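Regression test attached.
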Amino acid sequence: MTTKLWGGRFTENAAEWVDAFGASIHFDQQMAAEDIEGSIAHAKMLGKQGIITPAEADQIVTGLMALQAEAAEGTLVFDVQHEDIHMNIEAQLTAKIGPVAGKLHTARSRNDQVATDFHLWVKHRLPHVLATLTELQQTLLNLANNHADTIMSGYTHLQHAQPITYGHYLLAYFDMFQRDYERFEFNQKHTDILPLGAAALAGTTFPIDRAYVADELGFSAIYHNSLDAVSDRDFAVEFLANASLLMMHLSRMAEELILWSTYEFNYIELSDDFSTGSSIMPQKKNADFAELVRGKTGRTYGALMGLLTTMKALPLAYNKDMQEDKAQVFDVMDTVMASTKIFSGMLSGLTIHEERMVASTQDDFSNATELADYLATKGVPFRQAHAIVGQLVLQGIQTKTPLQAMPLSVLQAAAPQIEDDIYHVLQSETAVNRRTSLGGTAVANVKKEIARHQAMLEAR
Ligand code: ARG
């Protein structure tokens, strides 16, 4: 017999470095509070069911509560000899209350214990993710409200396409973050299921009360299959997938913040407190934080691929491979929380160069579609209208004359249907405000959308 908690059938100890390889305490100590919380509920249930005596249950719960206070103060000391958080807590409990601590593990396995801790850990944090997303959405809405009628170039292929408003652009991100919000909200459903009581894999012969434990821990559902209970990590994969999509959205916006704050674009300027300087070039103001969010998207995708790959060929039920599930989820939780907060801060302090934005739509032929549409309304088949305007654009590029600066005679030579009202039609403001189709960029639409979104946030 060796000194391990499970050492009964062993005669030899592993070398320290081998033990260290198998240990998870260096990261799963983050679940100390959840581990103790789960154990308190379990001990209470054992006492209530008469599986241990009420006095024993009391002793165990009192000891665990003392450990909970130490965990909150950060004074718990962990030992790699005890491998993981579960056995560390049990060792600490034994040191506190003596051998009666050994009764806590009745009708339980580390397999359902670790699954319970991990569910609790994610379940406790998802509401914070949702709150942080709401804050970001509110920030976007405030900015959109200030810029519902700020005209800028819209892009496809990063080429000037058609004029839009900056507010409309911001609301596109609002909608993406709304889907992220809904995905994390749904993530709660699959996280809010209690594995405890599955024991090692097959259930237990003890008369446990899983509904009581679920109630104590605030779980609204219970795994109904013990094999699934101990081997399901879908909730963690779903979290990483949701986080990956969120980071993708942040990263796309980060790219635009970086690009738009360049000398060439100069649409926006980041506030000093959300940018950095250079150690050699005194003039520099870099969008480091936007770049970091863009960069951290990579590690988030990596975590998703990592866990999917870890899980892909695991036979039922528990396998030690699954110990690899937590570190990446912990890391990604930090990443999404921090990145989302950084974005709220960055956007709140943004300076918008409205004049640069609108100037970008003045001599760029982004009104070419207006002219083609105009001809189409006058009965010219759209394909033909497209070709006529294409010719005018070519002429305009060669003579450095935007469409709205061409004399009527020139325009009429290309298409006799063109009349004087075309100059109004060709203005970027007109182009924007005529796009009143559902989902279009017209200022009136944007204002309506802002009101709708605001009401939705307030109803949360
Ligand atoms: N540290 C382990 C993990 O994180 C706990 C479960 C260990 N169970 C076992 N049978 N080895 O997965």
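Expected vs. actual: identical. The first helix runs from residue 16 to 22.
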